[in-house]
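Page 42, continued from yesterday. The earlier attempt failed because a stray header line got pasted into the input along with the sequence. Redoing it now with the clean sequence only.
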Amino acid sequence: MRKEIRWNNIIATIREQQDVSVQQLAETFNTSLSTIRRDLQEMEDLAIIERYYGGARINDSRISEPPMLLKHGTNSPSKLEVGRYAASLIKDNQMVYIDAGSATFAMLDYILARNITVVTVGIPHISKLLERGINTIVLGGTVRKTTMAITGRKTLEQMESYFYDIAFLGVNGIHPMGGLSTTNDLEAASKSLLISRSQQTYALADHSKFNLIYPGKFADIGEITIITDSTGDYPSPIDNCIDLSKLKK
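This time it went through. Structure tokens are written below.
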């Protein structure tokens, strides 16, 4: 089993069972104890899980996340740079999906395209879009208090009612093993669905999102285009990545 697949399966198993032993993981994935221990050590180093004698549990700080209002002020210059570039990609008359999150919120003031329709699940995004006079469709569902995002099965059903010319997604972590990930399974499912229903899909990520893994994977590296101010110390080149720090050179 490839390491990337094994890591994702380990995370899913630990999330489902809360606490799991090394022996159990080795038997489940038909892998040696030494391999599982090495995996868990690397995952603990990345703060994905917490190890204890003979087992592991998910690191709760990677399941929860700061409220959107707090995140909005984090790395603001970088997010504004990424948002400005993302907004420039929208063309007149397009059907656009804009995800919830502080990075996508940052792009709203820079949208210049005319006669577009924006579909969103971001609660703060709604008033900003209406203030800009942009035709807006809000998907229904349950609001997550931390992210101020609408999510749930109803949201997924309504997403399937549309096809999008271009979509912009938020992301919590980008990692060579874990791909593009987020904190919540339902939000991950929404992002995966959006990728399949959009002609062009972009993930907006400032430099702080690289080399992190969260429980809900929604895309492989290279599956969609990443827009970032810098990939920082990410260990390898990324296909389909727009690194704005390199465009300046």
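Notes: The chain has two domains: 3-62, 68-247.
Reminder to self: strip header lines before submitting.
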